[in-house]
Specification:
Layout: H1 3-27, H2 32-42, H3 44-74, E1 78-84, E2 87-92, H4 93-104, E3 110-120, E4 123-132, H5 138-157, E5 163-171
Parallel strand pairs: 4-5
Antiparallel strand pairs: 1-2, 3-4
Helix pairs in contact: 4-5
Amino acid sequence: MSVLDRALLALFALITAILAGIFLAVIAGWSVPLDLFELSLLNNDYRLLAGVVAFIFFLLAMRFLLGSLRLAQAGEGRAVIKAADLGLVSISLPALEHLVTRAARQVKGVREIRPRLNYGPEGLAIRLNITVNPDRNLPEMAAELQEKVREYVIATAGLEVPEVQVRINGIFQEGQRRVE
């Protein structure tokens, strides 16, 4: 979900909450909102403004409704490995994450791996967030990690890997050993 969608959804939720609060207040006996609503319907300018606001609300509601249905239908992401006469062969993104993690563990100095995958028309884009040991040359290790992960995914899954981004989020610190 984009930043614009999140902002619109937050605004939509806030306005809906305010309207629900006003509705509850009217049910409890507060008549001022009803009087203002009746007054706005008698004036043509206010009626047009209310119609425009209601139409914008309707469009926002439909956008979020259709967006949520599209997300529910998409389900688990997958990548197509091979299209054969008998059908498609695909692999789920969690399975690909396991392959990527397995390949990354082969590189000396990598302690923790958190892969994020994005499968698109150009292939599988891989982003690795890692924690490393402090005793390795970081640029060399990152280059080795990129190459090993790319080669392993190509060899095992047969997918194109246009990019492997590596982000070092932390340096592993072993606990201080006590000398007695």
